[in-house]
Amino acid sequence: MIALGCDHGGYELMQEVIAYLDEKGLEYKNFGCGSTDAVDYPIYAKKVAKAILSKECEKGILICGTGIGISITANRFKGIRAALCSDCFSAEATRQHNDANILAMGGRVVGPGLAVKIVDTFLNTEFSNAERHMNRVKAIDEE
């Protein structure tokens, strides 16, 4: 299952992502927000991060105006690897090399057509499992 979260700046782009997920028959849980009315992005980033850490959801997608604030908030949680992506190459690389479990995008940065391609790339790219990448991912959470 995919956890979804956005603020008002990401609401419209999230609707495009939801339409894509529905078209593909992919299961998701939408943690909000529910409109373009102003809200605080940390609320939704935390809900998505907690859903992944609890294993309620496997991956997440977060969208705010730029994708920056919402990804920073999600990355405060040990075990979360949120990657802000504005292109397909980055989405593929972060899955292969970083085992990113949250895709973050900017609703005011990425257009709907590209966003759907980024989501598709992120969701359909596997972690490489190469020892060097596994060691790096492990090192991220070490204190």
What does the model show?
By secondary structure, this protein is an alpha/beta fold. It has a single domain (2-141), classed as Ribose 5-phosphate Isomerase B, Chain: A, CATH 3.40.1400. The chain is built from six helices and five strands; from the N terminus they run βαβαβαβαβαα. It has helices at residues 11-24, 41-53, 68-74, 88-98, 112-124, 131-141, and strands at 2-6, 28-30, 59-64, 82-84, 102-106. β1, α1 and β2 (28-30) form a beta-alpha-beta unit. The protein is globular and about 45 Å long.
Radius of gyration: 14 Å
The strand line-up of the biggest sheet is 2-1-3-5-4
Q: Report the helical percentage.
A: 40-55%
Q: Strand count, sense and closure of the main sheet?
A: 5 strands, parallel
Distance between the termini: 29 Å
Say which CATH homologous superfamily is assigned. Answer: Sugar-phosphate isomerase, RpiB/LacA/LacB
**At the third CATH level, what is the topology name?**
Ribose 5-phosphate Isomerase B, Chain: A
Which ranges are low-confidence, i.e. pLDDT below 50, for 5 or more consecutive residues?
Answer: none
Strand content: 15-25%
User: Mean pLDDT, as a whole number?
Assistant: 96
Overall number of structural domains? 1
Could you state the order of secondary-structure elements as H and E? Answer: EHEHEHEHEHH
Label the overall shape: globular
